[in-house]
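thread: overnight batch results

M.L. [08:02]
morning all. the overnight job finished for the chain we discussed friday. pasting input first so we're all looking at the same thing
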Amino acid sequence: MGSIYCTELVATLAFTLALLALTSSEAVGQTTSATSFELGRRLLQVENVSEPLKQSDDTIRVDPLDSLKKYRGGYNLTNKHYWSSTIFTGIYGYAFGVLWLLVGLVYGVFLLVTTTCSKNNKSGKLRKQSPCQKQCHLWPIALATFFTILAIVASGLVLGGNAKFHSRAKTVVNIIMETANEASNTIYNTTGAMKTIRDDLEATSEGNLGTRASVFLTSTSEKLDDEAAEIQKQARKNRRLIDKGLKIVYILTSVTISLTLTAIVALSISGFLRLQRAVNLLIIVCWLLTVLCWLFFGMYFFIEKFSGDTCTAIEEFQRDPYNNSLSSILPCDELRSAKSVLVDVSGGIYDLVNQVNSNISLLQASDDSNLFKVCNPFSAPPEYQYQPDNCPSNTIQIGDIPQVLKVFTCSDANNGTCKDGEFISNSDYKTVEAYTSSIQTLLKAYPGMESLVECESVKDAFSEILLNHCKPLKKYVKMVWAAMVFLSMIMVVLVLIWTIKAHHEHRLHLANGSVKPHSAAANRMELQTAKAISDISNLNSDVQLAISL
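M.L. [08:03]
and the structure it wrote out:
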């Protein structure tokens, strides 16, 4: 029995090595093929420099929802076939998990049948205990202890990598959500200034000009407010879903690995103390935890593929933000339509400042007044580029107009009468002050709005993600799935070792149970035989003594 026991343990180690080779070759094969494809794609891009850069085809994968055909739709978060093909990349983890569960069920049924048959078979043959019983107990314990230490190390790697991955993923999500919030705040600042100008126009203007301007500002601000509200809505919705998903994955992984650590340590202690019932129970628990470890390996392998796809899509977005796979979830393409609004606003301010400067020039020609002209913050049409710092030294900013006009404003202290040089009524001054204040507020929001329309804020956020977070994110998730597959194989070895040892102890228990009922009768037969032989020997001695006499 001892030789059979040793053979079973050797077979377990051989099975583990084969499993290690199979899993490593499959996982590394996928990673190597993706790396080779990326290298080939870059070489082709270098050789064909005259051709525009095309999106990578790393997303061509088997789609289980389409009869295992290749998915070729690219990175598209709104396409269920993209998700199914990407999730399917973790098939090796899912398959090993299901296979290990089925093996456990089959073994459980086999063990139940053999135990029942052994109990029903009362007449057992005489069996001798193995002479290597102590050795067969100690060296599997030593082997299991070695693999337990490896499992603890692998669990530490999984927990550490999972914590770093979770932290890095949260940082990326925060960057994207903050960018969305800044975009909506910029839009609200712009529409706030527009509404203020509209209200001032409605309160002071007369005729069709004020009405047309008011209608334009109202429709434009409402349209932009709708865009800002949609951005905030999508940001809140996506953040809630992403935060919930990350939290669930983090908690499930941490709890599973913590339970695995506790179970394997308890199993080793129970096995050393030969607590057979506890060992049997912990074997079942570890068997199920091993299934979960395999499933988590497949899940993190899929997450690594998804992270790589996302970073590639962000890189493509930097080159073309309007014709990209991320366009379906980012507002760049929609906000591009607001560029015409900015052109209308900048053109209106440009014409207004030119009109004011023309009036100032006429006033200077009529009475030789020394008035400063207003700096036009926009360049000539059709570009209308915003350049507030490119102003001559003898001009003033729009926001400084009230300070200049204040000395020419009639004071209320003189009962509405104006002194010499005061030709602006107090009500007109307040109107001008309101207009210039609103326009200056609009001009302060203009750079942010222009950056938003050109999608510069999103590009800046994505640049930060590409430079500082993409590589660490992929590194940590790869660290998690590599440690997870290592832990899964170690768990397979430990469960098999303890299962074989428990089976060995079970057979010894059955063997001892069949020997004990017949041991007393056997001893009595041996004593009677020895006594008969002794009597015969004594009789022969007496006969020989009588003959000699």
